[in-house]
Amino acid sequence: MLSEPLSNDREKDAKEVIVETALTMFAKRGYHKTSVNSICKKAEVSNGLIFYHFQSKEGLLKVVVETVLLKLDEIISSGKNIETPQKRLEFIIDKFAESLQIDKNIWALYMAIIYQPDTKEIIFNEVNESAKNFRRTIYELLEQMGYEDPAKSSLDFETFRVGIFSTYLYTGRQEHLVNTIQQLKDRFLKF
């Protein structure tokens, strides 16, 4: 008896389950320590389904990274209609902190894979483009706010943000996140 093909909804659901499972496992175990078989077992799908949707483990990693980068792009684009650069930057900072708490696994994966030489090469173009967009937006906001050297200040902002990111993901301490987010606001919004 032939099995029925998956409906579009079931196929989409299976694909989403695979991506979410891979994201969690890559974040916890690392890309190279996570096998396709272990993803399939955890997601309760066949190996063939991963290869059908993603062609390879590398293809799956790229889709997982795209999911992460969409979060960063959403943070940047969601405040485009805010009237002043200060309020928009504050909105971006708040959204960043909120996403960091809600999507901790996503950001843990992001930090884990962008610094691993073997995965960095696979995802460099995607991550680099998204990072450029983020830095460009921060630069433009700081320039509009009248910063004398928006290039240096946007680099300072990014360094501070990544430090907050890393420390929170490592410690998980809510009070530290709240304090450092306030320091970020004090440093860049009270110009």
Descriptive notes:
The chain has helices at 8-29, 36-43, 47-54, 57-77, 85-102, 104-114, 117-144, 150-171, 174-189. The chain has 191 residues and is an all-alpha fold. It has a single domain, classed as Tetracycline Repressor, domain 2. Helix 1 crosses helix 4 (57-77), helix 4 (57-77) packs across helix 6 (104-114) and helix 8 packs antiparallel against helix 9 (174-189). The longest helix is centred in the last third of the chain and has 28 residues, at 117-144. The chain starts with 7 loop residues before the first helix and ends with a helix.
Sheet with most strands: none
The fraction of residues assigned to DSSP E strands is under 5%
Number of self-contained structural domains: 1
Enter the CATH topology name: Tetracycline Repressor, domain 2
The CATH class name reads Mainly Alpha
Structural class given helices, strands, pairing?
mainly alpha
What is the global morphology?
elongated
What level of helicity do the residues show? Answer: over 70%
Averaged pLDDT: 86
